[in-house]
Hints:
The chain is α/β, with parallel strands linked by helices. It has 2 domains: 4-160 and 295-380, 3-Layer(aba) Sandwich (Rossmann fold); 162-293 and 383-394, Rossmann fold (3-Layer(aba) Sandwich). It is 40% helix and 21% strand. The protein has helices at 4-10, 52-72, 94-105, 119-132, 162-175, 189-205, 219-230, 245-255, 279-282, 296-299, 303-319, 328-343, 348-355, and strands at 28-31, 38-45, 74-76, 79-89, 112-115, 136-138, 155-157, 180-186, 208-215, 236-240, 261-264, 286-290, 358-361, 366-369, 382-388, 391-394. Mean pLDDT is 90; it is low at 1-29.
Amino acid sequence: MLTRRGVLAAAAGTLLLGACGRDGKPEAAAVRAGGGPELVIGATLELSGPGAALGVAQERALAISAEAVNAKGVMVGNIRRTVRLEVLDNRSDPRLAARQATELGRRDDVHALLGGTLAETSMSVIGVAQELRLPFVSLAFGDAITVPLAQRAFIYKVTPEAGDVARRLAQVIDTEGLRRVVLLAEEGLHGDSGARAMTGALRTAGVALAGTVRLPRSKDGVARAAEEAVAARTDGVVVWATAPNSGAAARALRSAGFTGRLFFDAGAVAEETLESHNAPAVEGAYAIHPASLGGSTLANSSATGRAYRELVSQYVRRHGAYNGFAPYASDALLIITTAAKLAASVDRGRLRAYLQNQITDGMAGLYSFTPIRHSGMERHSLGVYRVDGGAWNRLS
Length: 396
């Protein structure tokens, strides 16, 4: 029998293969090929500042995948184009990200934009992308990035929906027999999405929410937030925060005397999450994350599996250990190049039309975009993981 994933994957776009990353300065970089027609994609990423725990890893994966695409080029109509990336460091500053998007968007030779691993930097780009009618694929977590649709016609997102992650987390908590938990959600748009989603998901699962504590951005407030969460006297804490805030929260909770179970949303997972300063605190923690984390994609013999194996191989060779972060940037590049192939054009309007009518099997998961759904990751792409022996182990 055909599974839903099998049917969708049968209609999937062409997969990216891997090559290698960049070791240069973080302020700005470009991946260029030889002369000839180009597909130019701008990228504003957090290569420094608080968002670097996510941004640097995504930039490395993006460079690997771009070099692979350029080994053959992208057939756009009857023209084979090379991809040129223009990568800028937004320093985790939303205002700088908006300026970069404006500069890139006003150029006639830039066809699409990706980036923003933080919700705030992505949100600052949205208005610019809409005004300049520039397709933008966000790498950030936060449901407000793609809604309301009337104001997000050119905006797309490759990260999972908060509701899908929350439902899986609530199911795990219920299965583990916990009846009362507290939510520690970071301040900002990502935490707002988590607070809304977890409240409903826990209610549906019959698990009591003892309270919601907001995790501040400043290091000074993390300890106080952790102490407040521990004071709720529950057996479980859901940490809804992006790295490195997620690891800092785990350390603070353990320092405050919490010995119960920790549960992370997908944004918590980065290379930094399992580094030595976090390892004791996160051991035994659960996380909901796309299937690329647990190595199931590596074992897949499909084109996706082969591409992902090559990505991991090149990443390890160029940058050292690879801990299974989701290559959202690679998938964003795949989605844009697939749209260009389908549209037989690099015109921004045509790219947008084919972005919102696309089913693509990516490295992080399966994507299904429609005119009324610009957050494309399928919920079936998510898995349940636990940290065992300092590594992510897939449970289901």
